[in-house]
Amino acid sequence: MNTYKLILVFFFACLGHATFAQNAHVKGVILDTENRPVADVNVSCLGNVVQSDSNGVFDIELPSNKKVSLIFTHISLKMLSLSVSLKPGEVFLFNPVMNNSAEQMGEVFVSSKNKKRVQGIVTVEPETIKKIPGANAGIENILKTLPGVNSNNELSTQYAVRGGNYDENLVYVNEVEVYRPFLIRSGQQEGLSFTNIDLVQNVDFSAGGFQAKFGDKLSSVLDITYRKPTQFGAAFEASFLGGSAAVDLVSKNKKWSAVTGIRYRNNSLLVNSQDTETNYTPVFADIQTNINYDISEKWQMSFLGNISQNKYSYQPLTRQTNFGTIDQPMALTVYYEGQEKDKYETYFGAFKTTYKASPSLTFKLIGSLFHTTEQEHFDILAQYRLGNVDEEGNIENIDFTRGIGSQLNHARNDLDALIANAEIKGFKEWMNDSQLEFGLKYTRESIRDRVVEWEVIDSAGFSINPPLVILPKNNQPYQPYTGPLLPYQDIRATNFNTINRLAGYAQFNKKTAIGSSQVWYHLGARFQSWNVQGASVEGKNQIVVSPRAQFAIQPDWDMDMVFRISGGLYHQPPFYRELRDLDGVVNPNVKAQESVHIVLGNDYNFKMWNRPFKWVTEVYYKSLSDVNVYSIDNVRIRYIANNNAKAYAQGFDFRLNGEFVPGTESWVSFGYMKTEENYENKGYIARPTDQRLKFAMLFQDYMPNIPSVKLYLNLVYNTGLPGGAPAYSDPYLYQNRLNDYRRADVGFAKVFVDSSTKVAKAKWLKDFKELSVGLEIFNLFNNQNAITNTWVRDVYSKNQYAIPNYMTSRVFNIKLNARL
Questions:
Q1: Is the C-alpha dihedral spanning 45, 47, 51, 57 positive or negative?
Q2: pTM for the whole thing?
Q3: How high is the pLDDT of residue 113?
Q4: What is the CB neighbour count within 10 angstroms for residue 429?
């Protein structure tokens, strides 16, 4: 293994670099004027000649950092030439259309990868996402290793970015905004992320300072593109956690294409590793499809569809959590009765058509419909005992009991939401490297929601009154109590609301030069107008305008560096969850949260060990006003819904990525962040997402003598979040921090076939493009990470003890991957 090199690079990456030549690649699919693939096309460059195969696919290697010409020739079609100048290691996708009427010529100087670099966008390869192990493997699993992205819950696909919360992140698939379920309370209920990695072609992520063409959120943008297949293919995955299958279909005339995936997941393996013994029968399943139809060279249509069903059936039996100190070890033992039955069903469909009115003008029309029905029903009685334990950690052998009591939780929460979108986009390009992008979008959200949720707590036979209600003093058992018996918590509300939104943007992009340095500008603004209506509420119409800008410069230096500054005024008009206060009642006049955001960045490409590396540094500051204060319990967010706070977030991020091991991409991330809020001018205190330090490592390796045996490491360390305090506590009087989050997931794989296989395949492997079998170990070092605390009162001292609710322990998983 080459692991020792990782440590050396981490400390000495910035001390120097050497410049060595590395070739680039141009590849793609060659079509004729009827959109049919053209075989046997000779593609030549400086004496290197390749031929397109029967599907029109070609891949040619060419020198980097110099202008060269590619020549495409065919016995019955006119010659086509392309002049390119590419960066070392860059792969440029080019899909030419050859005809028999005239010669064609073209020139390319800046590829899409370089454009994303100057925009501060991180691109993650789908192949990397598929390989890296994690309890919730997928795109979000990789995002959590990037700087500025935090999560302390391996069972959840949700993440916080630079001081924001889970509701502040935009997610697009094929330029269509996608949504999460509303009623999810804990990570183990989430099931599947919307994004199916088997269908993905491209993943772009921005942690802040993003352009005006993206939507109205405060923290981040995840922009995903599903692929458009060019030939038949199939993929399959199976493990102890479930399985998936995907198929690529293409019509004979290449006008129709479709990619479809089915997934199933069962989290029993992970949930059974927790302290609570349960009968757990989850069913998380979905089916997705992306269908494309090329009407002509100018007009294309596509449909994206998803049907998802998450059924969560949970019957806790017993639990014992040991805690305390060496001198005074303690334990909480709980015996349960009852069960929880949750169900989340979502239906999503999006239609998109693209029309190229001219070579420089393109229009897109997008319509989407999202429907979700959700239920959260539970009745769970927990009878607990708090006491000391013996040397073996057994509470049953100890006579002294500090606390005894019971807790009854009840919920009948139901939600039905229908969200419709209609959007038009335009893109105009001029010859002088300038573009204009613009769009207009209408959204109608119809929400029907019922909340019935209460909790009763009994301690040593006496009911505990709610903490925030003034009642006669309760000094039981020494004095009789004559006041009313009330639930410890009681939330009841019914909301029928409709939200109408109109949003639009305009953005100007320009590439120019200052002296010998290349310069890029992105100037734009967004607006949104909305109002909230309901049976008993009528909100006023609100409008916000958000100007944004980006500037990047690449000096004409020997060092390949790009400097960026971006920011502007960002608004987040409230979504339904942000309108609901702690009592479940909708406040229709909640204002948009506002953030003045600035990001300074540096992107440095260099060579080490004759291999490519990248060092990215970003410093950021956010000043927030009209803040909607919230609390987080596991992954459930509850808002105060009064905009009566201000806040800030500041920090810096580093990321070093490259080929620590030849032929593989790995990276190391580090970030520091501080975020605080001031509610009703009481002073600044830490926000619930105040994650001060973050370190993450994604590492790929292989055995030098057996390169088909791979190793994948996913390591995350986050300092503790504010949290774990009782839900009713005033954070200005008492704030608790959870312990640091430490987790390492490792995977070992035996690869029988992949794209780099050089030797002749065995007969039984000839039909496979990829085939591997692997062992995954989640939470390799068996760290105990707590997500929340359960608070239990000592009946004698009347002290309250925080009993941590631990996440998953060490778990083993076997996985099979295949692609035809």
A1: negative
A2: 0.84
A3: 58
A4: 16
